[in-house]
Amino acid sequence: MMLLCKYIVVYTDIFFSPTAGEELFKIKKPSLNTITFRMQKKENPHSAVREAERSKEIFQSESRIINTTDTCETEEEDEHYSSASEDYNSSASETQSSPPQKRKDLSAGNIPDAAYIQVACRKRQLARTQGDYIPLDTSHRAPVSQKKACSDTESEDDSDHDTILHFAPKTKTLRQRMAEYIVPKSDGASEDDEIQNMWEEQQLKKAVRLPQGINVDTSLHKSQPMKIKFDPSVSLPPVNLEIVKKRLNTRITSLQDLHRAHQREHEKYTQDIESSKSTIQELERSSNAALNYKFYRAMKTYMESLIDCLNEKLLHINELESAMQMLLQQQAITLLKRRQEDLKNESAYVQLLSRKNGKSTDDSLEDDEKTKQLLEECVARRTCRRQARESFGKSDHHEGMSSDDELSAAEMTDFQKNKDDILQASKKICEDVHADFCNIGNILLKFHQWRQKFPDSYYDAYISLCLPKLLSPLIRIQLIGWNPLENSIDLNEMPWFRAIEEFSDAKNMPQSKRNDDPDQTILPTITEKTILPKITGFVEHVWDPLSTSQTVSLVQLCKNIFEEHSLSKNESSKAKQDLVNSIVSRMKKSIEEDVFIPLYPKSAVEDRISPQSKFQERQFWSAVKLLSNILLWDGIILEDTLHELGLGKLLNRYLLLILLNAPPGPDNVEKCNKVVACLPERWFKELKSRSTLPQLANFSQHLLQSAHTLYKNNCSDETRDLILLLVKVNALHIAEDFIEEYKLEHLKSIVRK
């Protein structure tokens, strides 16, 4: 059955032929195609009757609308276009005077004539043109209701095309999808019906344009969902108590694991909460951002001013350090040259006396006068030193073991004056500087306040690495008058040392925390970067290895620095290695230049009062003194280096030569005893064999030969002393052989000890 959804209003246009003059009628199709739908429904006679009545009512209503429109347009045209179209007004009045006849013609379905249609089109065009502007004369303005009634006819046709056509299927509800899912797939007939219904609904949604406000429930066209059917023939798996128990235990275990995980997470969150609370409290106790910024800004300004001040004073500090270094170096060079000149003159004088003929020329006599004068001055200095030793009660001293470092009164006065001038100038370096920028204690106080208020930013700024370089110029000012070769004030007693030690608080901090605190490295770093280079300069240019007092002071200072300030742990320290290398080089130079032992005839040497014997004795004891000073460095310098310098170059090359040429006796035993006393006992305690060091093999043989000679000469005390020396140098097998050879049972106890 075909259902006509809408009637189409067909407009006709009239065209006049210019040649024939006859009227032609042409049916013009509408711009929009008429949409018709075909629906398959069940035959219902009542619905057909209702559709016919509804179509008739629609046609009558449209006729009335057209009549009303024509009337409105005729009245408006009479008012505005009376002078231009009188014929049309008369036709319009005839048409207006007979509305029943027009309705009759339209209701009968007759086609109007050309004149009527032309008039109607003209009126409609005028009405449309009038609606495009607002007239100036508002006295005969038509009511709004009439205009709305006139425009109803035009908007009626367009309203049919305003409705949006929905061609996509409507989304199914959850209830509909569940109903489709639970329907058994085995029911083929129901599935086919469902597919057919779905297809019909989709076609209706695409074809039918429902009026607005009407919501059709498509679920009404669907069949009612079927209930879920269970197949009783399907058997469930067997269940017993063990299976249930096992599943329950598994479930309990999993829940327990989950509970423990939740507990751990709860503990973690609790700790985070406590940590957050403590952080909040610390932040609340701390100062606000403005005060923090003010502190950092003031600290930055202070640091910039301090650096500028130190940079300005650094040139003056370097000049004073160089002046003091040159003054001490000049004094050391003067003493060294005088000693070498005295040695050369005395050796030449003794050599001159040793000549057999004793003849001399006039030139030699003049030289002898100069040499005698220099020797007299040297003897006078020795006499003064001997008297000074006797006044202190030192009776075991030998000629040659004292340092010839006395200056004349004029030289001493000049040296002291220059030294005082340098020290006075060093005090004036910071005369125009505020105490906060030149006092190490005040400077460290600023950083101490920073460390107390903001420890995180303090340690993040690596202040422990900056302070040694920052304080170095001020420390160097205090060290200008410091001489490590003299018994001057110790480093631990200096003001800068105490201030840094108090800042680091190393004494009050436990050892465990002391190793982790970066501020504990400030003092060792200052010692390594500032103190050790200064000591190295003294070793290279001022230190005299023949001076026992200088060597003892220097050795003690180095041991304190390496042990107390933890520099011994840093074996790779460049400053420490440079210092050790300088010490070794200076001792090698002293052995080569300062040691001189001449050889004279045996007859001249045996005479104890002869100049040759005295000169040789002084040179021997001077070499023994140098050996003692070299071996004082045991524990600081490597043992192999000391073996090479002290035993290889000095003992075997010079001292042993004098001992072998000297006749056995009490003097020889005393010399051997003095040499053994210089050797460190630690060297022999670490020996596992019953033999001595390889470098002491020749010396041990000399002791054995001297013991044989003295025993044969019935010198039992001297023999016992030599055996004791063999035991001290760990030459035990030599001592045992000697005791067994001469059946000296009373000496076996010495060997056992």
TrEMBL record:
InterPro entries the record matches: GCFC2-like, GCFC_dom
Keywords on record: Coiled coil, Nucleus
BP term (GO), one: spliceosomal complex assembly
One GO CC term on file: nucleolus
Subcellular location: Nucleus
Start and end residues of each stretch annotated as Disordered: 41-109, 137-161
Record bears the keyword Nucleus: yes
Bias kind Low complexity: ranges: 82-94
Recorded coiled-coil stretches: 245-286
Pfam assignment, any one: GCFC
Keyword Ribonucleoprotein: no
Domain GCF C-terminal per the UniProt entry, residue ranges: 442-655
GO MF, one example: DNA binding
Compositionally biased residues, Basic and acidic residues: 41-59
Family the entry assigns: Belongs to the GCF family.
Protein name listed in UniProt: GC-rich sequence DNA-binding factor 2
Phylogenetic classification of the source organism: Eukaryota, Metazoa, Chordata, Craniata, Vertebrata
Gene: GCFC2
